[in-house]
Design goal:
Blueprint lengths: L7 H12 L3 E5 L6 H9 L3 E7 L2 H10 L7 E5 L5 H7 L5 E7 L4 H5 L25 H7 L2 H12 L4 H11 L5 H11 L2 H4 L7 H12 L1 H15 E11 L2 H16 L18 E3 L9 H6 L7 E7 L8 H6 L1
Parallel strand pairs: 1-2, 1-4, 2-3, 4-5
Antiparallel strand pairs: 5-7, 6-7
Helix pairs in contact: 1-2, 7-8, 7-11, 8-9, 12-13
Amino acid sequence: MDHQPVLADQVVELLLPALEHGGVVVDATLGRGGHAARILEAAPRASLIGIDRDPVALESSRANLAAFSDRVRFASDNFSQLASVLERLRVASVRGVLFDLGVSSPQLDEPGRGFSFRAAGPLDMRMDPLRPLSADTVVNDYEEQELARVIQRYGEERFARRIARAIVRARPLTDTSSLAEVIRDAIPAATRRTGPHPARRTFQAIRIEVNDELGSLETALPAAVDALEPGGRMVVLSYHSLEDRIVKRYFIEEASGCVCPPTFPVCTCGAEARVRILTRRPIKPPAEELERNARASAAKLRAAERVAPHVVAPRDEKRSA
């Protein structure tokens, strides 16, 4: 297995306390199975459910996890369907959930998938090849205003309007190289002389739109918490600010419990904390890992532990925390 999973030691360290006595762990973004293999090695009494919507990734992971075949079940699905996958497999609860978000290195390195701006490929970008929406539709069919919205929102690109206008004028575009060139030329020369490739943010935005990545994450996080047993743990690896913002906000909300105004003498909302945050600040890859894998530089890891219901800190204790 030549693909190196990001922050693998830290992922295992955070999940292992929940898996020491066995139980089910879900790798909701299985990929090539790098994290899954490390988890199964460290927790010999645990079993794993691997979910991925990319059939190529699933095929690779079956081979890479062959040594653990008696402890692994595979599901071809989007991680947003976590709840239905568990129901289909008759799994009532789990001890761990891992999300490793975004696009994988093997997907980027295969020009035929259309994810990379560095090599010519089709305007595809679908993680699930059966998904009806592709990059071709976004690039060639979206109205200019809608295209600019996608680029600005998901790419946080300040030149979104200029880029969208340039793309519309250049239509029809047929491959990633042509698209990258149009984007580059739409950005002021002084700006594109420094920093990352000028097409990076726009390609990211189109990929997120095509795969509904943020919508899937917003659906999957509550499903994961619902599935976790008390003491079970969830670990999330994100690679850009939009993903990390969603995870951070959700963890804070789920760890807050009572949302009544501080002036209320007693709680009337009935809300309880469902998780305990394990990473007050996100964990980032150490320097030695970045030397081996520069693509890990944007990674941020956050983790939380499911708490038992009806165990809520007193109101005065929460205010002093």
